[in-house]
Amino acid sequence: MQGTSYYQLAFSVLNKKTNKMANQKVLSVCFFIHLFGVFADKENARLTTPQILTKYGYPNEVHYVTTSDGYILALHRILPGKNTTHKPVLVLHGLFVDSSSFVSTGVDHGLGFILADEGYDVWLGNVRGTPSSRNHTTLNPNRDPKFWDFSWNEMGTIDLPAMVDHVLNVTHQASLHYVGYSQGTTIFFVMMATHPNYNAKIKVHVAMAPVAYLGHMKSVPIRTMATWKDFLNFWFKAFKINEVPPKNAVFVLRRVCSVSSRFCNLVFMAIFSYKPNQVDSNTLTSFLGHFPVPISRKQGHHYLQIVKSGYFRRYDFGRMKNEEVYGFSTPPSYNLSLVTTKCHLFYSRDDLAVSEEDAVRVCKELGGACGSSNLVNGSIKHLDWVIGIRIRELVYSKLLRIMANY
């Protein structure tokens, strides 16, 4: 039943001879039914990644990988069809999203579908803490603060190597293609800097909005938070907020966005570099049904640290604990010169999170491993890399040509 039909029902009742009190009750009930019905009308917004894949007729599997420190990660696989390349490709999401960001926008726009249609054996990863990877062998994410004691360092040193090994073991391949978006690129760089032997396991890395350095970030809200990062971290810890945003806040936000996408557009444009006129309403609503995905407090704090410092380095615990953990008063930097896998970078001048200057710096430090540095012509803001109307034309088509060469 569409949202307007609730109002039609209300007016049909009001046309009858009923008293004023009954009319008010009918209107109230219909309003609240509509409030939640609007959100439900956009089906992809309330479906999981496997359910979305099944809806569009793509055979799929869910694989689980247990990391060395006990986290149980979900990999969503889109099974290759007949007469396809069967080349495995691992795709990893950005911050505040999960694997759904590559399929919730539908078959014409979702990168997961586009890669599958090109004949790839597609594996959509989900890092620790995301809804489908919110599991652990001994820790309960709802009760044990220790579950949330991680940053993207652990995702790069532990999660990604475990995913890569699982995909290669299942597919009986020696290496795979890798596509990273935002945080997904950070995790890749961390893995290669700490486990350089994995260079042999990756054919190519296509990096959309590559994040290693954030010293030139243009987002004013995020730069402001970076200035107050330690103050914010202190109070989050004091109030025992380890999951950001908290589950209750996510529930309220999604309900508000289901009613007023215009309000959410303004908020997202300010905080997440989102540009509303580059996304159609159905795509936006489907995406918002899965956004934001909570992250750990430490994970966010780590990103704010590199925004403020301008360095790509490990988590800064503070002088005394740094000496205890690292043997130095400041955290060590990740050495990008250890990356030998060819990396093809895509970035945009209108991305307020990843600046052209920082992306170019990544390419420079990669040296010979930087296969190409691609400044995208067109207004692409940070969330547009997965939901922008023109992203297939501007980026995905080039991404496919690059991958075909490896």
From TrEMBL:
**Keywords assigned:** Glycoprotein, Hydrolase, Lipid degradation, Lipid metabolism, Signal
The UniProt record lists the Partial AB-hydrolase lipase domain at 50-105
Q: Which SUPFAM superfamilies match?
A: alpha/beta-Hydrolases
One of this protein's GO BP terms?
lipid catabolic process
Q: Does the keyword Hydrolase apply?
A: yes
The superkingdom of the source organism is: Eukaryota
Q: Offer one Pfam family short name for this entry.
A: Abhydro_lipase
Q: Which residues cross the membrane?
A: none
Report the active site residues: S182, D351, H382
An example Gene Ontology molecular-function term:
hydrolase activity, acting on ester bonds
Sequence similarity: Belongs to the AB hydrolase superfamily. Lipase family.
| Protein name (record) | Lipase
Q: Which organism is it from?
A: Zophobas morio
